[in-house]
Amino acid sequence: MTSNELLTAALRYAELGYQVFPCAAGDNKPATAHGFKDASTDAAQIEQWWTDIAGANIGIAAEGMLVVDLDPLSPGSPNAWLNDDPEKLLDLVAAPSALTPRGGRHHVFRRPAGKAWRCTASRLAPKVDTRTDGGYFVVAPSRRPDGVYQWIEGLELDVPLDQLSEPPPWLVQELDRIATERRSNGHAANGTPTLPNGANDSPEANKIPDGQRNATLARLAGAMRRVGMSQTEMAAALHRVNQERCVPPVSSERVERTARSIARYAPDEVSVALVENHYAQMQAESEDEVEPAQPDPGPVPDALLSVPGFINEVMTYTLESAPYPEPVLAFAGALTLQALLAGRKVRDTMDNRTNLYVLSLANSGVGKDHARKVNARILYEAGLADCLGTSFASGEGIEDRLCVQPATLFQVDEIDGLLLRVGQARDARHEAIVSMLLQMYSSASSIYVMRAKANQERSVIDQPCLCLFGTAVPKHFYESLSARLLTNGFLARLLILECRGRGVGRDDTERPIPGSILEAARWWAEYKPGAAGNLTDWHPVPHRVPQSDAAGAVFRDVRERADAEYAQCEQANDPAGMAIWARAYEKARRLALLHTISACRDNPVITPEAATWAGAFVDHQTRRMLFMARHYASESEFDGKRKRLLDVLEQWRRQHGDEWMPFWRINRKLPWSSREHEEVRDTLLQQRLIEFEVTQAGRKGGRPTAGYRIKPPVSDEAGE
What we know:
The chain is α/β, with parallel strands linked by helices. It has 4 domains: 3-200, no CATH class; 201-293; 302-632, Rossmann fold, CATH 3.40.50.300; 637-710, Arc Repressor Mutant, subunit A (Orthogonal Bundle), CATH 1.10.10. Helix content is 44%, strand content 14%. The strands form 8 sheets. It has a 6-stranded antiparallel β-sheet, with helices on one face.
């Protein structure tokens, strides 16, 4: 996390009316003389603080606020407060909510007028504190050695202070009780919440009637999942609510199915499902279980497009010298440049290397060629121009090129054409190219045995480092996706990054390459690890970059999460998901290695920060890739048409709601034959994904009008 990003975030909080102050870099301790009492909304003061204190974390004075702070009961053991009362839990996660580095949570409310509460420690429950006047809390994107502060997606602190919601009535009454006890005897009788004065509603007032049961149970499960509860924990709470409040109770199987369905969402994805009403869709019109729609993670967040040291320096220069600056392209170019420079020279403790295949998606005119030109100029100045390739003529051509120069960066535009031909299996030459790329990727830590040539002995390429920086137009790339491509392993090895759009154009872009960039590139060009000798270039012994114990713990968590996702895909018989999640851990380790050597090339050690960034990057990138693949990839040409019609209808619904889309409009966008339209329509009707109607025109004798629309969500009690 850079100082500029922290400063930008601090200024944004101040604009919303929150009083901010700096905390020590990597810590939650105030970095000013009077701590939170120095907090301010003055932009000039804030800029001065973050200029003077590099990497300062962000504190917010809790004046006028109520922050409920849940800490884990012990390392790795989430706080279970309110787990048996999901409705109260839902009240908490309706407010801006954040995850803390140690596995805790912050829930942020506006303090009601007239309340003179004070900060509390473990008075609501063990390890449950409150912050108000006289206290403060640390906010995203602050970082500690054990992790980062981050807002739960959809629950960010993005409204002014005076627009925050007040705490729920039951919490107000409990805090009033604590305040009364404090005034009377200075301490509470115990730390267990009791809600007097009728705060616990009577059972009759809390009943869930027929017609609301499924939606309410799903909503409660969503609240529990957002704070990290497991399927087992959710099911236990839902069974209790079902028996005590549903009239009549739904079946036990329905309760288990609801918990199981919600558990498939990652905690930070559930907010999207709440907004898009996926829960209603889960209640299918039959007893068959419906897989919940996977939410769209969106393009990679800006916070992940930052790697300290060389990569950030190259990215900054690329943006400053671009006619139309675009951060994703600049990041992708800098990342692959570092990957090439370190190729065959470093490895991690599991012998992972730096060879990467990166694909950036951008429309025409965005400036896809500028980052490639920057890489070419830097490599030329470093004496490494022969390490560049610009196209794939054939699999044999790749092999021959790596034989001459075993560390090569291919910068290839319009790579979607290659993927399209492979997906359609229409060209053996293109299939051979992808096969060669797969073999080179897997041979980076060993040797690749070349094909036999007439009158020549077989040659080998020792530890080939083939890096790829590809670009493509998004529409063309997505149209090239197929089930074949998703399972052959090539896409699983790609990092796919989507650009936001064309940047603001400018004229004065000529900049000399900074000396620090050239010095670093030349250092890598001359760096020869291992023992000196005439075999160093042919058979190098890469430097083994160690990792800290804390980084090892982060990596284990990354691996376990990827393995869990793989197991779910395996259980669901999802070969595409299995193929892509199978490579997630390896990608994370490679990226952590690149993060480390970019930040410190002289004496690199993989840190928790590097491992955390890499894990977050790969997790987001994997989920985005799977979302886009499942939305666009087709099993066949007919399946492609089916998805194209659904996409057209989805676009119509976003603009027109549940209005019927006239067939003549569809036919303009999809000029198929009448028979093709009929076959696709009948299939989607059988799958109950669309609705179709024919109405008589208004005037007498008019021709009937056909209309389509996406099938609206079914009733919440359907199938009961």
